[in-house]
Amino acid sequence: MYLKSIEIHGFKSFANKIVFKFHNGITGIVGPNGSGKSNVGDAVRWVLGEQRAKQLRGANMQDVIFSGTENRKPMGFASVAITLDNEDHQLPIDYNEVTVTRRVYRSGESEYLINGTTCRLKDVNELFYDTGIGKEGYSIIGQGQIDKILSGKPEERRELFDEAVGIVKYKRRKLAAQKKLEDEKQNLVRVNDILSELTKQLGPLQKQAETAKVYLKKKEELKAVDANMFLMEMDRIRSQLREIEEKISISNQDLQSTKDNYESAKVEYDRIEKELEELSARIEEQKERSNKNQLLKQQLTGQINVLKEQINTAKLNDEHLQNRILNIQKELDGKTQQKESQQAELSLLKEQLDKVQAVEVENRAVGLKLQEDTGILESHIEEGKNQIIELLNQRASTKAKLQRYSTMIEQIQIRKAELSQKILKLKSEESEQEESLAAYQKDYTEVSARIDALCEESTKYDSEVTGLQQILARQNEQMETGQTAYHREESRLESLKNITERYDGYGNSIRRIMEQKSREKGIMGVVADIIKVQKSYETAIETALGGSIQNIVTEDEHTAKRMIDFLKRNKYGRATFLPLTSIGNRSGFTNEKVLKEPGVIGLASSLVDVEGCYEGLAKYLLGRTVVVDHIDNAIIIAKKYQHTLRIVTLEGESLSPGGSMTGGAFKNSSNLLGRRREIEELTESVALLKKDMEELQKSIDENRDKRRILRNKIVELKDSLQKEYIVQNTAKMKIKQMQSRNTETKSGYAQLKRESSEIETQIADIRVEESEIQKELEASVSLEKKTESLILGLQKELEVKKQEQDAHNGKAEGIHLDLANLKQKEDFIHQNSTRINSEMTSLLEERESIQNDILENEKDIQKKAHDIEEIEISISKAAEQEGELSGRVNEWLAQKESLYTSHKSFFTKREELSERMAMLDKENFRLVSMLEKLEESKESQINYMWEEYELTVSTAKELKEDAYENQAQLKKAIQLLKSDIKGLGSVNVNAIEDYKELSERHEFLSTQHDDLIKAEEILLGIIEELDSGMRAQFKENFAIIQAEFDKAFKQLFGGGKGSLELVEDEDILEAGIRIISQPPGKKLQNMMQLSGGEKALTAIALLFAIQKLKPSPFCLLDEIEAALDESNVTRYAKYLHKLTKNTQFIIITHRRGTMEVADRLYGITMQEKGVSALVSVNLIEDELDSV
C-alpha cells in the first residue's frame, strides 16, 4: 500500500485545484518560506480527521478555507482527497484503490467520503487502525511535533507508542467490554427488582385459588341439575315431533293425488296446443306461397312491358340505319365526280411543265458569261485593297506604339488614382481607428462595470448563503432536539405496545387464549381492552373490576366452550370467560338515594365508555359498584346503608358488603386499564413530533435547495466573472493594437505623397513621345486616300456588271419559281386522288356494316315477341294456383277455431289444480317449519349441554335423578345454584395456574440472576486477558523500539547513546515514557539542555526506530531537519533513503542535502500573491513540468 495522489482545492492558500501524484521512494516538496509548503501536510492531517484547528495552525475550522486575496474572492468551501493503492488489501476494504475525501463549507457543515460514498469520521478512523496512518499516528510529523515529542510530559508521548506497538485496537476492545460490563450490572439491578415484585404477588394468588375451588364445586352441582332439566325438555320435544310427522304424511298423500290429475290435464293441454301450432304454421306457409305468386305475376307483367319497349326501340333504330345507307350512296357518287375532275387537271399540268423546263436551260448559259466578267474586276479591286491593308498595318504599328504610351499614361493615372484612394483610405482608416479606439475604450468601461455588478451580486449571494447557513444551523439544532424527543417517545410507545401485545401482567392462560384471537373470531378481547375510562377514574375502576379485569369476553357460550377445551387440551391452565349472550341478566342498582349522597361520583358503569354491544357487560361488571371521592365519605355511606354496598374510592380503596375494607400502596404506577390510554397519548404525541420533524425537515430541505441554488449561482457568477475578465483583457489588448495601427497609418500617408510627385514627372516625358508618333500617322493617311480613289473607279464598273447579272438572275429565279409551282400542283392532285379513294373505301365498309345490323335487329324483335307469349302463359298458370291455395286456407282456419275452444277449457282445469297444489304446499311448508324449529330447539339443548358441560344425551342420562318430578322444581334449583355462584363475586379460575406460572417465572428470573453474575465474571476475565495481552505485546515491541532507537541514535549522531524508559510505579499500560539522550562526548543530560539540532536529531532517531518496528505505508515529514547542520542533514538523508524499502516518504524541506536524495521534487510558488501554485521536477527523467 502507498499514497498515489493528493488533490487539494480551496484549502488554505491552494485556491485552484492542484493534484500531487506520488510514486514509491522519496518525493520532496520545496519552495520559499510562505509559499504554502506546510499546507500540504496540514491538508493530509485534516483529511485523516484532525478536528483541532490549532493543530492546523488556525483559530477555527473555517480558517482552512481559502480566504481570498486582493484580486480573488474568498472560496465557499475547502476539499482535500487522498488516494491510496490497496492492491495488497492492507486496508480492510474490498477495493484496490481507496480515496478518502473531506470537505468543509463556510456554513460550518462538513462531510467525509470513502470512494465517493458519504461516511462518518469514525469510519475513516477505523479504516486506518494499526496502520500508523491517522491524525494521532506517526505517518505525519509536522514542524511543532518534533519539539512536542521531546518537550512534552512522558504520559503525553503514550499515544505515539501505543500506535507503534499496535495495542490501540485492544484498548478500544477493553473500553467496549467495560461498557458491556456496566450494562450487565444495570440488568442485574432490574432482575432483582422484578424478583422482589413477583414475591409480593404470590400471597394474593393463593387466596384467589381457594375461591376458585368453591366456584368449581358449585358449577358441578349446577351441571347435574341442568342435565335433568335437559332430559325432561328432550322428552317433550320428541312427543311434539311425532304429532307433526303424522300430519305431514297425510298432507303429502293429498298433494300427490292432485299432482297426478294436474299432469294428465297438462298432457292433453299440450297435445291441443301442439295441433294449433301446426295448423298455424300450415296457414302461414300457404299465405306465404300466395304472396310469392302475386309477386311473380307482377314481375312477369313488368318483363312483358320491358320487352315491348325494347321492340319499339329496335324498330326506330332500323329506320335510322336505312336513312344512313341512302346518305352513304349520295357521298360515293360525289367522290367519283371529284376523282374524274382531278385526272383531267393533271394531264393539262404536265404539258405546261415541259415548256418551262426548256426556257430554264437557255437562261443558264447567259448567267455563266456574266459571272466570268465580274471575277476579273473583283481581282483588280482586291489588289488595291491589299495595298491599303499594308498601309493600315504600318499605321497600326505606329498606333500600337502610341497606344503603348497611352497605356503607360493610363497605368500611371491608375497608380495615381490608387495613391489618391490610399491616401483617402488612410484618412478614412485614421478616422475609423479613432472611432474604434473610442468603442473599445467604451467596451472596456462597460465590461469593468459589469464585473463590478457581478462582484456585487456574488457578494449578495454569499451573504444570502451565510444567512441560510445560520438558519440551517438553528434548524439542525431544532431537528436534533426533536429527533431526541421523538425517538424517546417512540421507544416508550414501542415498549408499551410490545407489553400490550404480549399481554404482560396477565396470566399464562389469558395470554394463550389471546394468541388464538386471530384464528377464533368469537374472542372479543379481555375486559381491560374493551373498557375505556378517563385517567382520573382508572384506579377506581381497576379496583372495582378486581380479578375480572383479566376475564375474556366472547361472542357467545360456544366460543367460550371451545376456548375452555383448548386450555384443557394443552394444559395451559384456567380462565374466566364472559359470553355476551349469557351475561347482563343481573338485576340493576335499585338504591337511587345512594347516588345523591355527598362525595358520590356515580356508579362505576356510568364512568366508563364502551361500544353499544358491550353496555350489558359494563353493567354486569360495574353496575352495582359505587365510586366516591375519598375513603372518609365511603365509610360514612357504608355505615349509613348497613354495609350493604360495594364502594371504591378514586385512590383505590375498596369497601365490600359486610364491612371489609381493602387499601394501601400500589406495587407500581402502571395499570392494565391505563395501558391503552398511554398508548393513545403516546401515539398522538409521536405523530405530532413526527409531523413537526417532517415540516422542519421539509423546511431544512427547502433551505438546502435554496443554498444549493445560490451556490450554483455563485459558481455561475464566478464563471461569468472569469469570462468578463477575459473580455476585459481582450478589450485592453485591442486598445493597444488600435493605438499602434494609428501610428502606422500616419507614417504611410507621408510615403504615398512622395510617390505621387514622382508619377507626375513620368507623365510629362510620355507626352513628348506621343507628339512625334502623331506626325507619322498623318503621312500614312494621305497615301491611303489615293489608293482608295483608284479602287472606287473599279468598283463602279463592277457595279454595272453586277446589275446585269442581278437582272439575269431575277429572270432565272422567275422561271425556277414557275417550274416549282407546277410540280407542287402535280403533287397536290396526286394527294387528293389518294384521299378520295380512301374515303370511298370507308363509306363502302360502313354501308356493309349497317346492312348487317339491320338483319340482326329483325332477328332480335322476333325473339322478344316469342318471349312475351311465354310469359303470358306463366301468368295464367299462377292465377289458377292462387285460387286453389285460398280454398285450403279457409278449411284450416275453421279447424283451428274448433281446437282453440277445447284448449281454453283445459287451461281453466289446469289452473284450478295448480291452486290446490299451492295450498297443499303451504300447509306442508308450515308443518316442516314447525318440525325444523323443534329440531333446532332439540339441537340447541344438545349443543348447550355439550358446550357448557361436554354432555351428550346418553351421558346426561347417567346424571338423571328420579327425585326431580317437573321442570318448575328444576328451574328453582338452577336459580339457587346460580345465585350462590354469583355470591362468590369475581372468581379468577386461573389463580391456581397463575400461581404455578408465577412460581416458575420466579425460578426462571433467579436463574437469570445467576447467569448475569456469571456474565459479569466472564467480562472481568476478558478485560484481564486483554490487559495481560497488551502488557506482553507492549513489553516485546517497546524493547524492539528501545534497541532500534539506540541504533538510529548512534548512526545519526555518529556515536553516543539513546534510550527509552517507562515511568516507575505506574501501570505499564498507562505509564509515561522518558527519552534519554547522550550525544557523543557529552554527559547524560536532561532533554531541555540539548541544543535545537540535537533535539531534532533525537526525535528523528525515535521516529526512524518506530518506522523500523512497524513501517507505515507512507510518511509525511514537514521540515523536521530544519534545525540540523549540513553534515547532520546528510546523515539524516542517507538514513532516510534506507527506509524507502518499506515506506514511501513525502518530505517538505528547503535543505539541499535532503533534496539531493529525493527521486522527485514538487516546487510550491506564489506567482500570484496569496495563491500557491505547483511546479514538478522529475529528477529521474530530468524533466520540468509546470502544473
Q: Would you kindly provide a written description of the structure presented here, covering whatever features stand out?
A:
By secondary structure, the protein is an alpha+beta fold. The protein is built from 18 helices and 25 strands. Helix 4 (158-165) crosses helix 15 (991-1053). The two termini are 26 Å apart. The model is unreliable at 1180-1187 (pLDDT under 50).
What's the gist of this structure?
The protein is built from 18 helices and 25 strands.
Low-confidence stretches: 1180-1187
Strand order of the largest sheet: 8-21-22-3-23-24-25
Query: What is the general shape?
Result: flat
Structural class of the helix and strand makeup?
A: alpha+beta
Tell me the fraction of residues in β-strands, as a range. 5-15%
**Rg, Cα atoms, Å:** 68 Å
What's the count of strands?
Answer: 25
Keywords:
1187 residues; alpha+beta; 7-stranded mixed beta sheet; 6-stranded antiparallel beta sheet; 69% helix; flat; disordered C terminus
Please describe the topology of this protein.
Blueprint: E1 2-9, E2 18-21, E3 26-30, H1 38-47, E4 77-85, E5 97-105, E6 110-114, E7 117-119, H2 121-127, E8 140-141, H3 145-151, H4 158-165, H5 168-502, H6 508-515, E9 523-526, H7 527-530, E10 532-533, H8 538-545, E11 552-554, H9 557-570, E12 577-579, E13 600-603, E14 608-609, H10 615-622, E15 625-628, H11 631-640, E16 646-649, E17 654-655, E18 661-662, H12 672-949, H13 953-957, H14 967-983, H15 991-1053, E19 1057-1062, E20 1073-1078, H16 1092-1109, E21 1114-1118, H17 1126-1138, E22 1144-1148, H18 1152-1157, E23 1160-1168, E24 1171-1178, E25 1183-1186
Parallel strand pairs: 3-22, 3-23, 8-21, 11-12, 15-16, 21-22
Antiparallel strand pairs: 1-2, 1-4, 4-5, 5-6, 6-7, 9-11, 10-14, 13-15, 16-17, 17-18, 19-20, 23-24, 24-25
Helix pairs in contact: 3-16, 4-15, 5-12, 5-14, 5-15, 9-12, 15-16, 15-17
